[in-house]
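Might you be able to check the backbone structure tokens below? Thank you kindly.
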Amino acid sequence: MTRRRLTILLHWSTLLLLLMMVKGGTSDVVVRWLFVIGGAVWIGMALARGMMCKPGPKLQGSLRTAYPWMHRGMYALLAVAVVLNASALLGFAPHDTGWVALLLLLAAATFHGLFHFWRHNALFDGALRVMTPRFVHKYL
């Protein structure tokens, strides 16, 4: 599996697991462990090889400057959510320790998705094609 495909898999599976955990309030232990493991692998890949995100040529001005920092912020929120959930699962913290971090991550992910939806539809830079699996491209 290529790095790009693994990143896409982790991107969408992390979102799915996040939604499953938020819907349930306090989620099933297996779902939380999958979130922790997937998030840790994704963060580890970013730390080892760098982030794969690029602003694209059509994004200009202050948004272009802020773009890498916004993504670093998303990784930081993911890291906090992973660490808090892992500490709760290992018994170092109360069971619901990661709840606020999950809600903040979900809020940031919503704005993240809206931003890329705007880029794709207003700037026509194909932003959604970068992070979606190939079978979805024909619908974009």
Remarks:
- The CA atoms of residues 14 and 116 lie 17 Å apart.
- Helices lie at 3-24, 29-49, 61-89, 99-123, 127-131.
